[in-house]
From TrEMBL:
Record region (Disordered): 15-78
InterPro entries from the UniProt entry: Cyt_b-c1_6, Ubol_cytC_Rdtase_hinge_dom, Ubol_cytC_Rdtase_hinge_dom_sf
Protein's name in the database: Cytochrome b-c1 complex subunit 6, mitochondrial
Source species taxonomy: Eukaryota, Fungi, Dikarya, Ascomycota, Pezizomycotina
Coiled coil: none
The organism of origin for this protein: Sphaerulina musiva (strain SO2202)
Length: 140
C-alpha cells in the first residue's frame, strides 16, 4: 500500500457523499428526440389502437377486482369503541379539552402556547392497548 492509496482512502473516509436510496436517474439529453418518438407512437396508436384497447379494459377490471378483495381495516373502529370505555374516556375528555384550549388560543392570539401531543399519545396508547386483543382475536 503506497502513499497514494493511503491518501485516497483517507479522503474517501473524510468526505461526505450524498446517500441515495435508489440509483440516480441519468438524463440522456435527448428530450427532443423522445418527444418526436412519442408523437410518432401516438399516431401509430390512432391507426392500430383497436387491437390494444381490449388489453387496457382487462387490466382495469383486474385492478378493480384486486381492490374489492382487500378486507376492511377494523382497527379504527375498534379504537373508537375503546375510546368510549370507562378506561379511556377520561383520557379522550382530557385531550378534547386540550384541543379546545389550543383552538381558542389560536383564534385569539394567532398561535397556541401549548400543543396536545402528550395527551394525544396517552389517549391513543389506551385505545390501541384496549383494541389489540380484540383485533388479534378477530384476525385468527
Amino acid at each position: 500500500m503506497g502513499i497514494f492509496d493511503y491518501v485516497s482512502d483517507l479522503y474517501e473516509a473524510l468526505t461526505v457523499r450524498e446517500a441515495e436510496a435508489e440509483e440516480p436517474q441519468k438524463d440522456q439529453g435527448g428530450d427532443e428526440e423522445s418527444e418526436e418518438k412519442e408523437e410518432k407512437s401516438d399516431d401509430g396508436e390512432a391507426e392500430g389502437g383497436d387491437e390494444e384497447g381490449g388489453d387496457d379494459a382487462e387490466e382495469e377490471e383486474e385492478e378493480e377486482e384486486e381492490e374489492e378483495e382487500e378486507p376492511e381495516d377494523i382497527k379504527p373502529k375498534l379504537e373508537e369503541e375503546c375510546l368510549q370505555t370507562k378506561q379511556c374516556a377520561p383520557l379522550k375528555h382530557h385531550y378534547d379539552e386540550c384541543a379546545e384550549r389550543v383552538k381558542h388560543q389560536t383564534e385569539q392570539h394567532g398561535k397556541a402556547d401549548e400543543d396536545c401531543v402528550e395527551e394525544f399519545f396517552h389517549m391513543m396508547h389506551c385505545a390501541t392497548a384496549c383494541a389489540a386483543p380484540k383485533l388479534f382475536r378477530q384476525l385468527r
